[in-house]
Design the sequence.
């Protein structure tokens, strides 16, 4: 199964249904089911921004599965859409001056955590 690793709090924001786009500086042609892996890294500034949600932030675990259904360039039009959806959740993409892509995530479902090390890019998890 394909996997993408994210820093916390972003992995938990996806698992809990607050975030439906994941942002990268690279685009993907992959469409289909993917696991969301909460890596060991934490974005401390973002953690403060989302304290009010009182979420759990596991690390080093696959915590959700979903489908990547699209990959879109984050242009000004897309930034406006994200601003309307949730300016706090999507603040990083809205304010970014880098060329970024948003992976559209659908059918998000929390799963029983699977402890495993993460990797860069989209990677393969071999189920045991």
Sequence:
């Amino acid at each position: 199964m394909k996997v993408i690793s994210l820093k916390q709090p972003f992995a938990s924001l996806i698992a809990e249904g607050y975030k439906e786009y994941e942002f990268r500086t690279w685009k993907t042609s992959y469409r289909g089911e993917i696991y969301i892996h909460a890596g060991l890294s934490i974005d401390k500034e973002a953690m403060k921004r989302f304290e009010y949600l009182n979420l759990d932030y596991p690390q080093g675990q696959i915590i959700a599965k979903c489908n990547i259904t699209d990959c879109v360039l984050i242009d000004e039009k897309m930034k406006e859409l994200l601003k309307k959806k949730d300016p706090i959740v999507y603040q990083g993409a809205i304010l970014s001056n880098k060329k970024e892509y948003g992976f559209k995530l659908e059918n998000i479902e929390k799963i029983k955590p699977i402890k495993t090390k993460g990797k860069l890019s989209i990677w393969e998890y071999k189920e045991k």
